[in-house]
Amino acid sequence: KVTGPSGKVSEAWLEAGNGYALTAEMSVIIAQKLSHNTDLKGFYTPSSAFGPDLVLEGRGVVRHG
């Protein structure tokens, strides 16, 4: 949930089932992406390396809002 400078409020949330299962699945997805992308060097968060929608690649993950 965020509030912009004009006072407009926006909200979004994820539906993802079991968080531990999602963590394991995302680790595999990220490892696969890293094995095909040798251009990344240095430190990245998963979303800065692969985009803000990366988590939506997990099974059953849905963004609401």
Q: What is the structure about, briefly put?
A:
The protein has helices at 19-36, 46-50, and strands at residues 2-3, 9-10, 13-15, 62-64. With 65 residues, the protein is of the alpha+beta class.
What report would you give on this structure?
The chain has 65 residues and is of the alpha+beta class. It has two helices and four strands; from the N terminus they run E-E-E-H-H-E. The protein has a two-stranded antiparallel sheet with strand order 1-2. A hairpin with a 5-residue loop joins strand 1 (2-3) and strand 2 (9-10). It is flat and about 45 Å long.
Structural class: alpha+beta
* Approximate helicity band: 25-40%
Rg value: 15 Å
Number of helices: 2
Sequence stretches where pLDDT stays below 50 over 5 or more residues: none
Distance between the termini: 10 Å
What topology, given as strand order, has the largest sheet?
Answer: 1-2
- Which word captures the global form? flat
Which strand-content bin applies to the residues? 15-25%
Order of helices and strands: EEEHHE
Tally of DSSP β-strands: 4
pLDDT average, as an integer? 94
Biggest sheet: strands, sense, closure?
2 strands, antiparallel
How is this fold's topology laid out?
Layout: E1 2-3, E2 9-10, E3 13-15, H1 19-36, H2 46-50, E4 62-64
Antiparallel strand pairs: 1-2, 3-4
Which structural traits does this protein have?
65 residues, 4 strands, two-stranded antiparallel ribbon, alpha+beta, 2 helices
